[in-house]
Backbone:
């Protein structure tokens, strides 16, 4: 184990740079924080480059981290790396997985969702619902944003979460005869009218403006969830959860 005391250390400076999307994209790595996220990452050991531990924090004895390097840092460095108010004092640098396209059957497509809590919750919900892949389109918050990672609760390590061109993805899915369900009131059907399919893609959109009309024009069918009370609308992550579970269980 290595021990770093100075926040001027080049390694510490590099860790702090990972708090920006620019550096995450450039380096192909991202920083996670907290016992739960690090534990989930260690289930995919090949993606963990190093573990960072506050000098006052103990590594759980049950963890098998093999030959992954562990660096001990001061309380002050730990606070500088933390994105939470009360840090647990454990972090890991992880590699962004390669974007290998496979023959998935079920997809969540996300268009221009800008709230990190919403994006992370949808990734977590897609994971819980047994969806094969999440494709995040242009205009959305970074999939490795710290708040997205915390909201997703480790689901980044359980299923593919990819950046992608949604126009191209919808064209590809249509060619493969996989129905793409958009979400829109206009020209939409109540979600319970969706046809039963083994394979499908659900397309959800921006918190304020919904799914881009250009994308909606390409979908197989557009769905909506009726509002039974006085609320004007549902949160996009809640709506995605209802629709994903319906489409999965209606097969």
Residues:
């Amino acid at each position: 184990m290595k021990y770093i005391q100075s926040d001027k250390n080049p390694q510490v400076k590099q860790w702090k740079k990972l708090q920006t999307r620019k550096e995450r994209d450039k380096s192909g790595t991202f920083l996670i924080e907290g016992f739960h996220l690090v534990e989930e990452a260690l289930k995919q050991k090949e993606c963990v480059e190093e573990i960072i531990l506050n000098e006052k924090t103990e590594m759980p004895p049950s963890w098998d981290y093999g030959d992954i390097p562990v660096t001990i840092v001061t309380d002050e460095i730990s606070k500088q790396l933390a994105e939470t108010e009360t840090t647990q004092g454990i972090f890991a640098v992880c590699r962004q997985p390669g974007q290998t396209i496979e023959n998935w059957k079920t997809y969540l497509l996300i268009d221009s969702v800008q709230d990190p809590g919403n994006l992370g919750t949808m990734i977590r919900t897609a994971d819980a619902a047994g969806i094969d892949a999440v494709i995040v389109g242009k205009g959305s918050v970074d999939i490795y944003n710290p708040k997205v990672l915390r909201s997703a609760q480790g689901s980044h390590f359980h299923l593919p979460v990819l950046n992608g061109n949604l126009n191209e993805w919808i064209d590809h899915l249509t060619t493969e005869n996989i129905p793409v369900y958009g979400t829109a009131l206009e020209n939409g059907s109540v979600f319970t009218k969706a046809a039963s399919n083994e394979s499908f893609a659900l397309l959800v959109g921006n918190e304020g403006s919904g799914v881009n009309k250009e994308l909606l024009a390409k979908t197989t069918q557009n769905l909506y969830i009726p509002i039974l009370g006085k609320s004007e609308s549902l949160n996009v992550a809640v709506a995605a959860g209802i629709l994903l579970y319906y489409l999965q269980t209606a097969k």
The chain has a mean pLDDT of 96. The CA atoms of residues 126 and 232 lie 25 Å apart.
